[in-house]
Specification:
Chain B: This is Multiple sugar transport system ATP-binding protein. Chain B: It is found in: Cell inner membrane. The complex is a heterotrimer of chains A (about 240), B (about 375) and C (about 300). By secondary structure, chain A is an all-alpha fold. Chain A is about 70% helix and about 0% strand. Chain A folds into 2 domains: about 55 residues, no CATH class; about 170 residues, MetI-like (MetI-like fold). In chain A, helix 5 packs antiparallel against helix 8, helix 6 crosses helix 8 and helix 8 packs across helix 11. Chain A is flat and about 80 Å long. Chain B is α+β, with helices and mostly antiparallel strands and about 375 residues long. Chain B has 8 helices and 20 strands. Chain C is mainly α. Chain C has 13 helices and no strands. In chain C, helix 12 runs antiparallel to helix 13. Chain C is flat and about 75 Å long. Classes of the chains: A mainly alpha (about 240), B alpha+beta (about 375), C mainly alpha (about 300). The interface between A and C is large, with 74 and 86 residues.
Chain lengths: ~240, ~375, ~300
Amino acid sequence: MSNPQQRKQMSVLDRLQRYLPQLVVGPPFLLIVFFVYGFIAWTGFISLTNSRMLPTFDFQGIQQYVRLLAMDRWNVAFHNLLIFGSLYILFAITIGCVLAVLLDQRIRAEGALRTIYLYPMAISFIVTGTAWKWILNPSLGIESYMQQLGWESFQFDWIVNRDMAIYVVVLAAVWQASGFVMALFLSALRTVMRTLSARLIWMAPAPPASTSASSCRPCDPCFSRLSSFSRTCPLRALTLWWR
Amino acid sequence: MATISIEHASKSFGSTEVLKDISLDVKDGEFLVLLGSSGCGKSTLLNIIAGLEPIADGEIRLDGEVVNDVHPKNRDIAMVFQSYALYPNMTVERNIAFGLEMRRISKAERKAAVREVASMLQIEHLLARKPAQLSGGQRQRVAMGRALVRRPKIFLFDEPLSNLDAKLRGEMRTEIKKLHQTLKATMVYVTHDQIEAMTLADRIAIMKDGIIQQIGTPQEIYSKPANMYVAGFVGAPPMNFVKVDLVKQDDQLGVILPAVLKGEPKDYFLPLPASKQLEPRENTKVILGLRPEMITHNAFAAPNIPQIECDVELLEPTGADTLCLLHLSGHPAKARVSPLFACNPGESMVFSVDMERVCLFDGESEALIG
Amino acid sequence: MADPKTLPGASGKRYLLGRLFIWTLLLAAAVLYLGPIYVVLSTSLKDLAEIRAGALLDLPHELNFTAWREAWSSACIGVRCEGLRPYFLNSVIMSVPSVVISTLIGALSGYALSLFRFRGANIIFALMLFGCFIPFQIVILPMAQTLGFLGIANSITGLIVVHTIYGISFTTLFFRNYYVSVPQELVRAATMDGAGFFRIFWHIMLPLSVPIIVVSVIWQFTQVWNEFLFGASFTSGGAQPVTVALNNLINSTTSVKQYNVDMAAALIAAAPTLVVYIIAGRFFVRGLTAGAVKG
């Protein structure tokens, strides 16, 4: 045995081993710091200069922002974004929530329907745009088809109408995203029901299986949990998704 | 040959101090149990011995060598975990052999070592299974096998039996004790179960709030508990505590036990043996610690043993003994009597009190004073 | 909700009406979701004369794959008339390394962040998570300069780098949240057994990670394959990914509008992610909700 007072030294490898987690996380973390935070700062900085094609360091304060806000195109874009953003979120969430609740009623073909509702999520928005542009094309698309069927006065030419085109974008975007929202709500509903039934079993040792559903009446604890769930529905869905 | 020696170890997580200046020696081949309720720091102490937690202050030595900075894998220690921590993706065989595999031991040797351990633990028929296909007891055995196969000089157990049902726990307890007798290895065992501690340990270290309250053989801990915490933690049912006056009657030091007889308070003077040497504390309040078996029926008691008569509120038959809940004023206390002699609940009964074995504690510091 | 039959007051007739109502809504929704893909598919199989006749929702008179052939190998995109094929291959070359590398990095950093809770691990994770939420427009300009500086502007390599970096946030999130449910004792046990950081990862964690690897691969693949902004901003001509090429094809005004070729091209561009989704979509949702260790 060696001198008991002598400290056994850590080998270099052991020392390295101790800091491996940090060493492994370090590079990706620095990448994110540079390419996300750094670039945001970089963009922010350039926005305060009078750079054109090439960046310059000629600091100008908020002059570019003043110019931008005065631009007509900015106003149009901003207006459109407000319309698009609010309608898109509203419809995607509403439709997604309704579909999730309907699908949660013990539907036999749930798997197939879920796949159908969800598939647009897998498609590039370029493809989605191509498809809807074609469908809504006034001379060859749905409008002319309805007219051919005999509905002479049918008109749906929003896509070529400057004032209405943004609503068509909403239509296509909702078509693409609402299935995804449905999936989020569905998994949230399922998780809540699972913890609920687990809790019910825990509270009452052996509830007959058939009554476990009908026990959810107003003023039962599970009912209050359900209603509190519906209040926090969107938030819960997101947190469940990100966990 | 494996000794563990911890000197002035401290450790905190954030602002909570989990270990406060702990010093502890484990002899070669000793079975030491760290006993305490959850959060007392016993698992942290175990992790520090294993090297899984760095130590903030102090020294830890294995066989006299300071190992503060030695990686767990180089300490020649094996550990059994509460959740068993079996690798879910590997068969039982590979689970047991994994430690050898990591130490680059040849396949043939690994196989032989696994066979040997498996036959010792009677799990040969399980070797091809995955952990998910095993029962709790079987998983426990595999976890033991994983520790055994490396033949380490020190074994650490972190509440290894707490996930088992009572019957299995008793069986595994016996097996661990047998194992210790066969291997003669140094073992440190963490538990919150005092029965496990009493049955397994060569010595017990009782911990509370990051401080070792007492270290000693199970018998020492039981009969001479260092303070009221230890006295109350070890023994089932726990020791009875009665606040009493320490007085002198007829030139003999004793305590006044406030009993209740037929609904009326009745004080008994119980003389203390001279060996207690508590004269300086005459006329103060102390706490009398009485284990249930020290209060018993007086059928065969010698004439000089003090007796009390007291109301019995209710009975708890346990088979071998019956526990009587005595009516002492302000302090319910349990007595252990033979079922043959137990009275009916609500009646009164004469008990003899074994004053030779009682413990006395300071009312303030709760430390043992006699 | 539970079986409506067991709900109080659910008489047979009302129950049937309710079911009818639910099914009508669900099937109507299914038609709306399937409609566009049906229209695109049927248009791609028609010839131009039939398309001009205007019967949008009718089935094609005969199956005509000319448009598909043209979209794949001879349609003109810009000045090149080689169809989508070279761009499709670009997208393959771009997405495979991006998906593999970002998943690997995410797995390692998720493992380090969840099972080795070193000081600051949670803050680092929170900071990395923010990368999930940035709109890519905000990094376009600096990224273009950086790619130029690195000499990989207008190249598929450049796009691989970009997609890998901006995928790390998501993959780290997936793996970190998956590994959080792995008991820490498993790592401790393996440490006692003598395994180090990488061997624990390789021998114990990776075999447990199949569900979340599937999630990460599906997510990254759909993101990278479908991405348009980076492709359009950082590449031109022969280095473009398929989404950009598709957009150029559809918006080209050089010749007579061939709707059937456009539709076939759209389907070709969408095919890989659709196939991945149809084959592995259910593993995606399952993997996201799966705990790591059972037993």
